[in-house]
Structure formats: structure tokens, C-alpha cells
Amino acid sequence: MLGFANLYRYDDANGRMREDVVVFQGRRLTPSPAKGEGVFVTPDLGICHIPGRHVLGEAKKSFPADQELWAGTFEQLAAYDDDLTGWPCAGGRVEGHDLVLLTHISRAPAVRDYCNRRTESGEIRFERPFGLIAFSHSDERNSYYHFEKRLGQISDQALNERLHHGVLVPMRVLVELYSTVALYDARPPVPYMAYLIWQHVLVPRASDLPAFRRLRKKQKLDVDVGLQEIIDELRCGFSFARLCPDRERQPEIPRREWCVEACEALMQAKMAAWLDPPTRTTIRFRFQKLDNILDYMCRICPDDQAEGGQLALFEEKGS
User: Fold this and answer.
1) The whole model's pTM is what?
2) How sure is the predictor about 249, in pLDDT bands with cuts at 50, 70 and 90?
3) How confident is the model at residue 190, as a pLDDT?
4) Nearest-angstrom CA–CA distance, 8 and 17
5) Residue 250's closest CA among 43, 53, 94?
6) Most buried residue among 71, 152, 153, 210 by CB atoms closer than 10 A?
7) Does residue 210 share a domain with residue 165?
8) Domain boundary among 153, 178, 203
9) How many CB atoms lie within 10 A of CB 44?
């Protein structure tokens, strides 16, 4: 998603990032009144380019073998083919936008054929420009993402032509620009959440304490942190929030339960404890210096939950 969004954010002609492009993920957009009251859509990816090249898309790395199950993805895209409100720009509306489906290059031919058949039969019909974009990742000497248009057209004619021939985005560029975007709308592994908390919340706090310089490797240092502080710091520093300043309709990522789960895993490892068990608002961490924080968290934190699909970003209305 970040690699594709960078095609809009980077100005090739001037060799710098555009300041008028906003990227968002899972944002709650409101359909037109004809679609019903009290409903909303949450696209995987949104790109708001003030001069007028706006995009909403779904990222589907793989599709199930049973093609009868593919209809749901195109139903989602059809829901975006509407005059939506809530965009992160003046007035919350745009004059028009493209629809994009990102899928792995290994599935692109089958998805293209499926889309063509369903379009001919009238089952799939988009009024706005639609593009099927295949992507792949190369781990050669110079790693890169490859994007190539396999079906349809997008409004940005220059980018449309580039995607027709294929575009390479160096991983070096993505790492430099987006390495802190570490969380989106899917539950991360518990050890990874514990790593983010330890590395990016606890280490800065501990290093500000006078006793930190004298702390030996196996010694412990108490660091008290509020749970909401952890959530807010990770949201501001490690989610798509940093690419979209308008937070009103943005999902609350990371979810509170992800942080609680990671903290309680640290508690099981005797590295933390609730200061107020009934309310669970403040945690006392037994901070210690670690050589390889991620490796350590992978060893001590269980991650038994089976990997599933995307989570619901917002509570159901009335729940």
C-alpha cells in the first residue's frame, strides 16, 4: 500500500515529495444518501491529491481458490464507486476518484479474467475509472517493489502509462520514507507489539532517568507508563496517522486490546505489572537493557492466536 501510494506522493519531475498528497488507511467515509443512512465504508487505501487525482483501493494479496468467494472484494470496490463524503480535504468531498485493486502478480491473470467475465455479464460495473494493479517484491541485490497495470485505466495519464509498462519502487526509498509506518488495520504479532512498546515507548523514558547511565545489563529500573500514553505514542509515530493529519474519521490504530495483550505478555514474563489492576490504566515496567529487543520479545512472548483477516475498524452502530 505504501509503495503504491508513493507513486502519487513522489514528484519525479522535481525529485521531491509532494506536500499536497494525503494518504489514509481504513478511513470512515459516508456513502451518498441513496445507499442508506448510518452506513460507512473503510477502504484499505486512500490517496487524496488536492489538484484532483484521488484514489480509493483494496489490497488483496491473495484470493481463495474458490472463485465464488471473490465477489465480496468487488462488492467492496462497488461500495467505493459512489459520491462519498469524509475525505481529508476541504469540505470532505472530491469531484471524482479512481478505484484500484492491488493484488499479487501470481493472482493477477486469474483476477483479470474473472473481472472481464463478470463485466461482460453485467455483474461488475464501475462508473469511475478502475485499475487492476499487480505487484511483486524482489529480494535481489537491490530490493524493490514492482507495480504493473493489468486491466483498466486510471485518471493520472502519466502514471497510467508508466504502470502499463511497469514501475519499480526501490525498497531503499520505502524504508527511508515509511519505516515508522508499522501498524495498520490487522492485528500484529504479540512479540512485535511488545517490541514497539519496549523500543519506542520505554527506552526513551528510561534513558531520561538519572539511574539509566548506571544501569548494568541485568539490573532493573522501574518505569511507570499510562496505557493511553502507549496507545497515543504508537498511533502518532507508527500508524498511517502520520500521513493523514485529519484524525476525525481515522481508525484508532493500534487498538487498545493489542497494547493490553502485549503488556500482559510482558507481565507473564515478570517484566511488568498493573499498578491499578481493577482499572488497568497504568503499568509499571521492570525495564532492563536488552541487546536485541525484537529477538528477546519473540522468545518470551506467546503469539498463539491464529492469523486472521482484517479486524473491524469501528464498533457496529448501537453496540
Assistant:
1) 0.78
2) confident
3) 95
4) 9
5) 43
6) 152
7) no
8) 178
9) 19
